[in-house]
Here is the input.
Amino acid sequence: MKSPHFFIYFFLLLFLFSIKSISAQENELENKIEKVLSKMTLREKIGQMNQINGRNLSDQLYEQIRSGEVGSMLNVGSPELVNQLQKIAREESKTGIPLVIARDVIHGFKTMFPIPLGQAASFDPDIVEIGAKIAAKEASERGIRWTFAPMMDISRDARWGRIAESFGEDTYLTQMMAVAMIKGFQGKDLSKPSSIAASAKHFIAYGAVEGGRDYNTTNITERQLRNIYLPPFEKAIREANCATLMTSFNANDGIPASGNDYLLKNVLREEWGFDGVVVSDWASIKEMIQIGFCEDNKDAARKGVLAGVDIEMVSSCYLENIEALISEGKLQQKVIDDAVRNILRLKFRLGLFTNPYTDLNKKTSSYSESHLQAAKQAAEESFVLLKNKNNILPISNKVKTIAIIGPMADAAHDQMGTWSFDGEKEMTQTPLQALRKQYGKEVKFIYEQGIAYSRDTSTARFSKAITLAKQADMVLVFVGEEAILSGEAHSLAQINLKGAQSELIAALSKTGKPVVTLVMAGRPLTIAKEIDQSDAVLYLWHPGTMGGPAIADILFGKSVPSGKLPVTFPKYVGQIPVYYNHDKIGRPATKKETLLQEIPLEAKQSSLGTSSYYLDAGFDALFDFGYGLSYTTFEYSNLVLSTVTLSESEDLTVTVDLKNTGRYQGTEVVQLYTADIFGSTARPIKELKDFKRISLKPGETQKVRFILPISKLAFWDINNKKVVEAGQFNLMVGGNSQEVLIKEFKVL
Ligand code: GLC
Here is the structure.
């Protein structure tokens, strides 16, 4: 029997050996980089910093690649063309440095997954990782080895169209989803042909654009950056080794992201040790002139390089000005060499020097059964059940005729969502198709669009829709947004249902038939009235290729809704920004606010009290972060903390009993929140710190256990240091951010 010391020494040696071999690999990599760099001219170095849009092919472009003036490209149309361009770079240029080809593979490549906001609603990092792995496989088969995802902008404003691409309003949930997506894209070995480099974007605070209007100014303090907006990027880089990062379009506090050397150098490189590539967003280097931060293209090139942007996407300030800037002594050769080192490091890590070409004989895995089934699961888990009066869902076997109404019931293109560059609507399975195919034997489905598309104001087809509804036992009305109404540059000042959709729901509700409203949208919508007029409401986001089969099985109870809202739903657009983890204030809303119609005539100025709410909207949101129903019900009891006093180096063990008190097997997302009662600055009223998906059979009880490292309570304090402050805390556990069990504990 070996002595215990033997094992200690053995594992210590193993650890030291592994550290030694990693550093040996890193040294070998750096030596390879230096070897290539040493043979490059300045022009060739600048070429590596130049990224071209692959849509603009020309003889001049081929010549540019041959002369080493192009380092990477995006949007190259086919794997054949990728290989053709790669051959020029690899075999006809002097340096032989391969290109890296990029694409926006945001929520699927060919097999479209739910939009990221929908994927976040699953609270299931595993399915998000699987989806990214599938997207990477499908994309890399087409020569793509770099995606500009995950987008991890904290989004608290539903007017902003890009909330669709985000993981919502919460920092912790965004961190978990971003890390999962990066792991899926990059795999365990970035050099594998089926892996693609991820890009943490958009750095930084782009989701806080004023007015929710895209590309607008942001003014986020360093403290808020540190506590809310930066943590997902830090985790992406320090935990998931995200290979690249993209700067955002916005200027924060007057400094454009592509010119912010404090964030790109001090924070990203020095504090976080990032050794990957920083790429600007589309022409955002040149746009620093429009912002008034740079005088001209040459100034923009200088400030971009000095800030630490390695690659300029599609504008050509770098290519056209860096040589002059160096000869004028306004830039040092070293900063160029450092940028090129980062780019070469990415290309070596991707294995492009040894394996630059795409295997054109490899059979595509796009739309394979396993990919489609994963997309279906992701869609099912993304759906959020917002209302289910009298448990009319799942559909009972007494229902024999169902009227399917609405512009989104058979919207193959829009169902794919905003970033569906390579998705094919012909492959989309819509709710209408899936319901007929999967349940057409048991149920008669009758269909009338009622409205041609989401913005259609015509009510000409209402009468036919009403007639069908009256013939049916139940009405399924599919409404929402065309995909174009969310995503980049698609901000809305009003976030209600467009066109005549709301009137259609009102008309259907008057038929006296049970109405199930299903919403496909890229953002929260202000649908309080439609919710009241419906017996049940399911929020589907834009669910992707397999949205139809997913919703069919959910409606008929083959699977059970488990999604939870990753973002607060406002009652009115005027409430925005409205989010669950807001800082505490001196006069919080109370439950006894006097609303508009209750105000007495000639009421005295101070007679309505002095708390923070809207006279015409109250205080509450329509639905809170973390909210979502199931077909079954869950009961929380017996919240127990391992201790009530502990130091910041300790872990708090939390248990809670969860019981399925309903009739269906279901999955509950158990959420753990903490609240710092008092701090050196005002603190959020609560913050999500952990969550678990727990599946239970009817009647089953499970003791759910969380381990909460007290270090997770650290925040950027009054002295601009990340610390855990001693004091009183609340710990809350529940099925959403409002209905929770509470216990107190103290940090010493
Ligand atoms: C776009 C987007 C960015 C995207 C890039 C390349 O403008 O802001 O998210 O990755 O350009 O398409």
Remarks:
- Residues 39-349 form a domain with the TIM Barrel fold (CATH 3.20.20.300).
- The pocket of alpha-D-glucopyranose is lined by residues 74, 104, 148, 201, 281-282, 488 (CB under 6 Å).
- Residues 4-37 form the longest helix (34 residues).
